[in-house]
Amino acid sequence: MLCCARQVAGAVVSGAAGCLRTSRGHQGLLRPGKVGMRQVSVSRIAMVSNSGANVDGEVAQPKSPHIGRLDLRVGHINQVQRHENADTLYVQQVVVGEAEPRTIVSGLVPFLDSHQLQDRSVVVCCNMKPKKMRGVVSHGMLLCAFIADDEGKTIRVEPIQPGMAQPGTRIAAPGFESDFDKNLNSKRKEFEQIQPDFAVANGVVTYRGIPLQVDGQPVTVSSDFDGGQVA
After folding, report:
1. Mean pLDDT score of the chain
2. What is the pLDDT of residue 12?
3. Which residues, at least 6 apart from 4, have a Cβ–Cβ distance to it below 8 Å?
4. Which pLDDT does position 13 carry in this prediction?
5. Where is pLDDT greater, at 193 or 11?
6. Which of 99, 140, 204, 212 has a C-alpha 20 to 30 A away from that of 159?
7. CA distance 2 to 183
């Protein structure tokens, strides 16, 4: 995954931190009695509830996270600097519709000159867990498309383009309800589970085959990245 400023296919790409908790439950009182032709006791129901298994002893599998867990917004880069302590990292100030710009660290130095990022509109994942990177805390992740060679080494990278939408505008895939927390659960590796379902087709960024949209318009990238990955 490129944009968490970690190694992706042999290259550090783009960065952050550290690129919804759905906890909907309800309580009810169940009285002992017959359910169909089977007797179900309150104690067994309690055991099932606590264990996550159904009445037949089968463990319920947790639902895999989807794009609705990501707080994706339009961002505008208003400042780009080289990281003082890392040759491959940029430190960017990115406006995402909040009172102050966010500091976001990205590993884009090997792929893009600073002037290619300055004043650029980008897509930011705003609920990555903040992460210190060589002494600078990064508060988000730039989503980028990337192409790798036959050996899996990243050779080209381009930030995703959200068009002319205002900074802070939400980005989503229709059909997936937004349900995100302030920070993704890094222990569950939620982003890592979501990321493989991103793709680029005909210059449009998709999630599970559905185009990402902002203000009703598709989120795009150069058609040179068709068939590439997004992270």
Report:
1. 81
2. 42
3. 14, 15, 16, 17, 18, 19, 128, 131, 141, 191, 231
4. 45
5. 193
6. 99
7. 19
